[in-house]
Design goal:
Elements lengths: L2 H16 L4 H7 L4 H8 L7 H11 L3 H6 L17 E6 L2 E5 L9 E8 L3 H5 L10 E8 L1 E6 L2 E6 L3 E5 L4 E6 L4 E8 L8
Antiparallel strand pairs: 1-2, 2-3, 3-9, 4-7, 4-9, 5-6, 5-8
Helix pairs in contact: 2-3
Length: 194
């Protein structure tokens, strides 16, 4: 597997062991079997964004701590130039760029997301996930087929959606081309995003 995946897996295993969190608890949090969780922790599987997000929150870390191994340090502002966000490529080709990864103690996680078009994915079932908090998605280009629980709709350039992300949700590019959107994940009122 990829060296980057191995590094992230080592950080996750190390944090879980340092915090004395049983693998069974992590598997339950991530909604998978313990053996499946241990495959991730050993670097045998690539991580989804939701996996990284929930694991970082459980460990009391910033997601960039798990991805890069370093902690954010800025507290007044952070300025990220076009194309220079922290890349997180962790979901069937979806590319995330964290746009505030250097700012510590964030109340929200803004991402520039590129969803690749895949005809099979557009016509198939949308993989759903959930996490505490709320989310705002704004379409910059292309179209996105969005599902929240049993509600499904298509969003086009300039459309947006705001929702409680503890509900099952997922999305795929639609309309024959890639979709780029701004996703802002907002912490839950208790300050958690897991």
């Amino acid at each position: 597997m990829d060296e980057k995946i191995q590094e992230i897996a080592q950080r996750i295993r190390g944090m879980r062991e340092d915090l004395a969190i049983p693998a069974e608890e992590m598997a339950r949090l991530l909604e998978m079997s313990e053996s499946e969780y241990l495959e991730y922790e050993s670097g045998k599987r690539d991580f989804t964004f939701t996996f990284l997000y929930k694991a970082a929150t459980r460990f009391g870390l910033d997601i960039s701590d798990l991805v890069t191994g370093t902690s954010p340090r800025l507290s007044v502002y952070t300025h990220v130039k076009k194309g220079h966000g922290l890349p997180i490529e962790r979901r069937k080709g979806f590319k995330y760029q964290s746009l505030a990864y250097l700012f510590k103690n964030r109340n929200a996680e803004p991402f520039l997301v590129e969803a690749p078009y895949d005809e099979k994915a557009e016509k198939g079932e949308i993989a759903l996930s959930s996490h505490k908090g709320q989310e705002f998605d704004f379409i910059l280009s292309g179209s996105l087929r969005m599902r929240i629980n049993d509600h499904e709709f298509i969003m086009h350039e300039g459309d947006c959606v705001y929702y409680d992300s503890s509900n099952k949700h997922g999305m795929v590019a639609a309309g024959g081309k890639d979709c780029t959107f701004l996703a802002v994940v907002i912490k839950d009122f208790d300050g958690r995003m897991d």
